[in-house]
Amino acid sequence: MKRGFYTIMTAQFFSSLADNALLVIAIALLLELHAPAYLTPMLKFVFVLFYVILAPFVGAFADSMAKGRVMFISNAIKITGCGLLFLAAHQYVALAAYAVVGLGAAAYSPAKYGILTELLPPEMLVIANGWIEGLTVASIVLGTVLGGLLITPEISAVLLDLDLPLIDTMLEAAILVTAVFYSIAAAFNLYIPNTGVDHRILRKDPAFLVREFAHCMKLLWTDRLGQISLSVTTLFWGAGATLQFIVLKWADAALGYPLNKAAQLQGIVALGIAIGAVTAAKVVSLRQSVKVIPLGIAMGIVVMAMIFARDLWIAIVLLALIGGLAGFFVVPMNALLQHRGHILMGAGHSIAVQNFNENLSILAMLAIYAGLVSLDVHVYTVIVLFGLFVSVIMALIRQWHLHNQSVEDSLHLIGAHKRH
């Protein structure tokens, strides 16, 4: 791997670490503000909202300048969101502040993934995705644990004893620590190399950008490999975001865990994803990527088994297995999607289309989950419905792939180099 790749990985680690710690802290803030239960999943909803709203523009923005500069600007926006969350005294102000952090993340993502296709040859994309997803998930593990620790009275007492200016409460101290990690990520962004790829002039006509985005959307959804990989990653991210909150509620119902301990169980899923991602990077080539789809069906079945877990060790095994299956099937699909998108339209535009679809899925699934919570549907019923949904949709995607192309077609398309 080129040296710049490790700089990208380091910046991504610290930025993602802060994202996940801040989610736990924001949930704790809503609890402190006595917000209704259905607003908890709405945190993730508002976080990803800008991914959908700004999808026609962030891809063009990412392709208009050096990716490292885009990532630096994005982390600066996240730090601004931390400052607004620091001042939040009402539940809806807290949601708005977390949405600003989501704005930064929406701008960050096309640059983070797009630079991989600029920096590395196609045959290295699965390996690169495996490592960057593995490191991202490691940051999710540590970030959720960090968030849980920062809202623990013993840890917050140490921070408050430092007598830092303007820091009077546990949550204020936790938000400040998170902002420091965003700042570290921003510092590493400054050292990401310029890949030398020609940048497109950013068009200031919104109507043109929307038309261009719609064209890119059509290209990926009509490409016979693009549509399969895009379907899988869209389902994965919607399901993954919802599973974060299901695990919190399940840990309370099955194990009696409070928020700080339940957040650590989220880390078990993330650890499983990291192991699955790294394993996939070692054993699955870009040409074999479509063969991992059945693992998505298996993941949905294992999710349903959560309703039988009453002991911690059983819960750990199930959560790690869910994460492992998810990581193993999503990394090859993600690499295939990046490769097809880079060929068809360019890295930034491709990632923007991917983000739009994946985050639209997150919005839809979180809205449904929030509705079920508001109706007091038992978490075990939610788990069964969730697992069935994932398995059935993955089975349908597999049949779709088998119907519209043979293995020989797949090999031919992966080797194609046509750009529209």
Could you explain how this protein is built, in words?
The protein has one domain (3-189, 206-414): Growth Hormone, Chain: A. The longest helix has 33 residues, at 312-344. The radius of gyration is 21 Å and the shape is globular. The protein is mainly α and 420 residues long. The protein has 16 helices and no strands. The chain has helices at 3-32, 39-53, 55-62, 67-87, 91-119, 125-150, 153-160, 170-189, 206-222, 226-255, 259-283, 294-304, 312-344, 347-374, 379-404, 407-414.
Number of domains: 1
Tertiary shape: globular
Which structural class do the helices and strands define?
mainly alpha
Question: CATH architecture, please?
Answer: Up-down Bundle
Count helical runs.
16
CATH top level assignment: Mainly Alpha
Largest sheet: none
Q: What percentage of residues falls in helices of 4 or more residues? A: over 70%
Integer average pLDDT: 82
Q: Cα-atom Rg, whole angstroms? A: 21 Å
Contiguous uncertain segments of 5+ residues: 416-420
Determine the N-to-C terminus distance: 29 Å
Strand content: under 5%
Find the CATH topology: Growth Hormone, Chain: A
* Count of β-strands: 0
CATH homology superfamily? MFS general substrate transporter like domains
N-to-C series of helices and strands: HHHHHHHHHHHHHHHH
How is the secondary structure organized here?
Blueprint: H1 3-32, H2 39-53, H3 55-62, H4 67-87, H5 91-119, H6 125-150, H7 153-160, H8 170-189, H9 206-222, H10 226-255, H11 259-283, H12 294-304, H13 312-344, H14 347-374, H15 379-404, H16 407-414
Helix pairs in contact: 1-2, 1-4, 1-5, 1-6, 1-8, 2-5, 2-14, 3-5, 3-9, 3-14, 4-5, 4-8, 5-14, 6-11, 6-13, 7-8, 9-10, 9-14, 10-11, 10-13, 10-14, 10-15, 11-13, 12-13, 12-15, 13-14
